[in-house]
Specification:
By secondary structure, this protein is an all-alpha fold. It has one domain. The longest helix is centred in the first third of the chain and has 29 residues. The protein is elongated.
Length: 75
């Protein structure tokens, strides 16, 4: 396996974990809007999705990803 493939696999794994964590936080907030831990997690993950680091890892639009996850949880 090439170093580029390893890098891409790592980048994808980081993003997928952030998406999973965001879903959990959003679902917790839907059940209990006063959950401070879930709110802090959601805020941190959304900062990551809007960060320079995120744009290094992927070409996905972070804002669009946030909206998609919110719509998914609201559905």
């Amino acid at each position: 396996m090439s170093n580029i493939t390893n890098y891409e696999n790592l980048a994808n794994a980081i993003i997928l974990q952030a998406v999973k964590d965001c879903r959990v936080a959003l679902k917790c907030l839907r059940a209990n809007p006063r959950n401070r831990t879930a709110a802090a997690d959601k805020d941190a993950i959304e900062r990551f999705f809007r960060s320079q680091w995120f744009t290094v890892l992927t070409s996905v639009d972070g804002g669009m990803l946030i909206r998609s996850l919110q719509m998914e949880v609201d559905a």
